[in-house]
Design brief:
Elements (H helix, E strand, L loop, with lengths): L3 H13 L2 H8 L3 H15 L4 E4 L2 E4 L1 H26 L6 E7 L1 H6 L1 H11 L3 E7 L2 H10 L4 E6 L14 E13 L14 E4 L5 H12 L5 E5 L3 H9 L5 E4 L10 E5 L5 E8 L7 H16 L22 E3 L2 E3 L7
Helix pairs in contact: 1-3, 1-4, 2-3, 6-10
C-alpha cells in the first residue's frame, strides 16, 4: 500500500513546480522532500521526477499517480468534513486569506460574531493578494479566501473551488478636497497613486484612464490603501479607490463617480470538498452577516464635498450592488 503522505508530496510538486516551494508550503526541508520522493520512486520502481532547469518535471507515470492522488486527497477531506459535520459543532482552526480592504472592514466584526457564537473556533488570517490566494486555497494552504474581481476582469478559476458572491462596492475617483477635478479626464496631467504592477486593481485603473484618453502618471505605488488615501488627502496624488475600505471612516477627499458606475465584486471561495463542514459554514455565514450589515452603513459625507455635476456619495453595500444617494448641500 502506497503511503498517502508521500503521494501528497508528489501532488504538491505537480502544483508548485519545485521542491523548494513544496518544502516551504509544508514546513519541510528540501532534503526531506527529496528523500521521501526518492523512497516513493524506489517503492514503485519507476522514475517520477526529472530536472528541468530550476524546476522539476513529472514523468508520465508521475502524472498518472498525481492525478489519482488529487482524487484520494479530495475524498479524504470530504470524509473528514462529513465526520465533523455529524457533530454539528463549529470547532477547530479555519485559515482565511483576505485582501486589505476586506481585512480592514470585514474581519474584525467577523471575529466578534464568531467569538460570541462559536468560542471553540480559532481563526487564522493572512493578508494575501486574491489571485495567488485562490491558488493557495485550491492547493490546501487556506480554507476560505475572500477575493475580488473587477468589471470585465474575472478572477482566476481553479477546479474544485466554488465561488459565492459576498457583496459589491463602488469604484470611484478620489481627489483632494480642494481639487478642481470634476471628471476622470481632468486628472490626465496629475500625479497618480496606484497599486503595484500586476495587481487586478492596477490593470483595471489603467484601463479606465486609457479609455478616458490618457496614460496615468503613476508616481506612487503601494498596495496599502490607507497610504494611498494619505497621498490623496495631502494633495500629492489622485487615485481610484473602493468604498469598502472607508465604510467606518470619513476620509478627507472628494469621491467622483466614474462612467457607468463600476463596482467591484467581493466573493468567498472554498474547496468543494469542505462544503459539508459546520466550521466552514459558520465562517461563511458570519462573513455574509457582516457584509449584509454594511448595507445599512454609508460613508459619512461630513468631510466629502462633491461637485454639483457628480452628486454621488460613497455608498452603502449590498450583495446585488451599491446604492447611492445625493449629497446634501453643506
Amino acid at each position: 500500500m502506497l503511503d498517502v503522505r508521500k503521494l501528497r508530496l508528489l501532488r504538491e510538486v505537480q502544483l508548485r513546480g519545485t521542491l523548494a516551494e513544496v518544502a516551504k508550503a509544508l514546513n519541510f526541508s528540501p532534503s526531506a522532500v527529496s528523500q521521501q520522493l526518492s523512497a516513493l520512486e524506489a517503492e514503485l520502481g519507476v522514475e517520477l521526477l526529472r530536472k528541468h532547469g530550476r524546476r522539476v518535471q513529472l514523468t508520465q507515470q508521475a502524472e498518472i499517480l498525481a492525478g489519482h492522488t488529487a482524487e484520494i486527497l479530495e475524498r479524504l477531506e470530504i470524509a473528514e468534513q462529513e465526520v465533523l459535520a455529524s457533530t454539528s459543532r463549529a470547532v477547530g482552526t479555519v485559515r482565511i486569506a483576505v485582501f486589505q480592504s476586506a481585512a480592514l472592514t470585514l474581519i474584525p466584526p467577523l471575529l466578534r460574531v464568531l467569538e460570541e457564537e462559536h468560542p471553540g473556533l480559532r481563526i487564522e488570517m493572512v493578508q494575501h493578494e486574491p489571485e495567488s490566494a485562490l491558488f493557495d486555497t485550491f492547493a490546501g494552504d487556506f480554507d476560505v479566501v475572500v477575493a475580488e474581481q473587477y468589471p470585465g476582469h474575472a478572477a482566476p478559476h481553479h477546479p474544485g473551488l466554488d465561488q459565492r458572491l459576498l457583496t459589491g462596492d463602488a469604484l470611484r475617483l478620489a481627489v483632494p478636497v480642494d481639487s478642481p477635478v470634476t471628471t476622470l479626464a481632468d486628472a490626465a496631467q496629475l500625479a497618480w497613486v496606484m497599486e503595484p504592477q500586476g495587481s487586478a486593481s492596477r490593470h483595471w485603473g489603467e484601463q479606465q484612464c486609457r479609455v478616458a484618453g490618457f496614460e496615468p502618471d503613476v508616481r506612487y505605488e503601494t498596495a496599502d490603501l490607507q497610504a494611498q488615501m494619505r497621498f490623496i488627502e495631502t494633495g500629492h496624488a489622485v487615485g481610484i479607490l473602493n468604498d469598502l475600505t472607508w465604510a467606518h471612516s470619513t476620509p478627507s477627499v472628494r469621491f467622483l463617480s466614474l462612467a457607468g458606475a463600476p463596482r467591484r465584486e467581493i466573493f468567498t471561495s472554498i474547496r468543494t470538498a469542505s462544503a459539508a463542514s459546520p466550521t466552514i459554514a459558520a465562517v461563511r455565514d458570519g462573513l455574509q452577516r457582516v457584509a449584509d450589515d454594511l448595507s445599512s452603513t454609508s460613508l459619512s459625507t461630513a468631510a466629502i464635498t462633491l461637485p454639483a455635476a457628480t452628486p454621488a456619495t460613497p455608498a452603502a453595500f449590498s450583495a446585488s450592488g451599491v446604492s447611492s444617494s445625493a449629497a446634501a448641500d453643506a
